[in-house]
Amino acid sequence: MRYNAWAVFREGLRGNRGWGPMWRDPAPKAAYDTVIIGGGGHGLATAYYLAKEHGLRDVAVLEKGYLGGGSIGRNTTIVRANYGLHGNSEFYSHSLKLWEGLEKELNYNVMHSQRGIINLFHSDGQRDAYARRGNAMRNQGDDAELLDTEGVRRMLPYLDFEQTRFPIYGGLYHARGGTARHDAVAWGYARGADRLGVDLVQNCAVTGIDIEGGRVTGVQTSRGPIRARRVAIIVAGRSSQVAAMAGLRLPIESHVLQAFVTEGLKPVIDHVVTYGMGHFYISQSDKGGLVFGGDLDFYPSYAARGNLPMAEHVIEAGMTLMPMIGQARLLRSWGEIMDMSPDGSPIIDHAPGIEGLFLNCGWCYGGFKAVPGSGFSMAHLVATGRHHEPAARYRLDRFRTGAGLMDEEGTGSQHNLH
Question: Which of 345, 255, 262, 271 has its CA nearest to residue 305?
């Protein structure tokens, strides 16, 4: 069924009894051409583009739980292309263009809202850094506008502009940035992939990766062995664990990132706002809740829960930037596992020494906004064996050679924790 206004109206008159399942629930076959490990946003997008762009439909997505139950459904939903480094800039620009046509392509409302992002700065040095970033964005063909204090005040009058330590000097405005509904993105890609013939297999944990003579031959799962010519590992914070099944040790650390939602409020925050002197970012959801987050919990962990000191740290930053937030009641919080790479940029590449095995990992804080671009580029690599040009610099060997590192935050070649 295609979704449209007439279908919604008709089903409303019929008590909504005519809606069918959005995707099938097939049992896994004994063999596929391609197996994708991981039923999150990146895995589902890869499956969709494999089928749509390359005609590869003998594909299975294996998810140990339910589709969209991991990081894709536990994030702060920000979509942007405000990157400054060569390699990142081209990739996220491509991903944003895919976002802008995604709802029409998938025939699914992912609630993509280009409400604009404002990155605040609080010193002359930060202003210069954002001016350079804005110029890089515009050279790439994306939008960027440098605002002075009064320009920010007109757009965000509720901020504390006279902070004792960190007064607001201005901001970098990225009008095409914004938010989307995280789980709807997973559902839209799942529905699209299923309609093209991809098998989406839930409750199917991968327990081993079969390799013979330097080539992948399939996977072992909780629902039996599955043969495959090609296998793609796309499992976010579990990347190191799954890659270890193939004898690989990745330059990845897994950390917990918390996010928070307040009670529903009347519309007050029209944009996504980030604080330049503390890792804090905030937007308002369609339900009215203020959605915000900050730093990682700063210790390696596979536990999808956070700690109270970091919750206090994030809320302190929010109170410093906008004291009004102290009047809102916190409704809930959650934590999810981030796969942090040494330079803060992702990996989309062949697995070294194993033909037919592919890696997609290391997204750090940037996984959600990258979903369309990641899926498109990963599908290109899996189908053709060649790197897609916007993602050509996301090679694994940069960590071995030291050449081509993309340290967007300037924190050095170490696990990107700041």
Answer: 255
Radius of gyration of the chain from its Cα atoms, rounded to whole angstroms: 21
For residue 415, what pLDDT is reported? Answer: 60
First to last CA, the chain: 45
Minimal CA–CA distance to 350: which of 378, 390, 376, 389? Answer: 378
pLDDT, one tens digit per residue, over 382-413 is 999 999 999 999 999 999 998 889 988 776 65
Residue 418's pLDDT is 45
Token pair, residue 91, equals 């990739």
Are the CB atoms for 310 and 156 separated by under 8 Å? no
Report pLDDT for 411: 61
Give the tokens for residue 396. Answer: 């694994």
Domain coordinates of the chain in residue numbers?
24-116+176-251+341-418
Residues 71, 44: contact at Cβ < 8 Å? Answer: no
CATH code of 24-116+176-251+341-418, in short, is 3.50.50.60
Q: Are 332 and 356 in contact (CB under 8 A)?
A: no
283: helix, strand or coil:
strand
pLDDT in tens, 45-77: 999 999 999 999 999 999 999 999 989 988 999
Q: What are φ and ψ of residue 138, in 5° steps?
A: -70, -35
CA distances 28 to 139, 205, 247, Å, are 47, 12, 25
Contact between 66 and 203 under an 8 Å Cβ cutoff? The reply is yes
Q: How many helices (H) and strands (E) does the chain have?
A: 11, 18
Q: How confident is residue 2, by pLDDT bands cut at 50, 70 and 90?
A: confident
The residue with tokens 């899926």 is: 375
Please tell me the distance from the alpha carbon of residue 266 to that of residue 327, in angstroms, as a whole number.
13
Residue 346 to residue 411: CA distance in whole angstroms: 16
**Mean pLDDT of the 102-115 span:** 97
Q: Which residues contact 385 (CB under 8 A, 6 or more apart)?
A: 350
**Strand, coil or helix: what is 349?**
strand
Cα(68)–Cα(79) distance, rounded to whole angstroms? 17
d(CA 382, CA 341): 22
Task: Locate 398 and state its tokens.
Answer: 């940069």
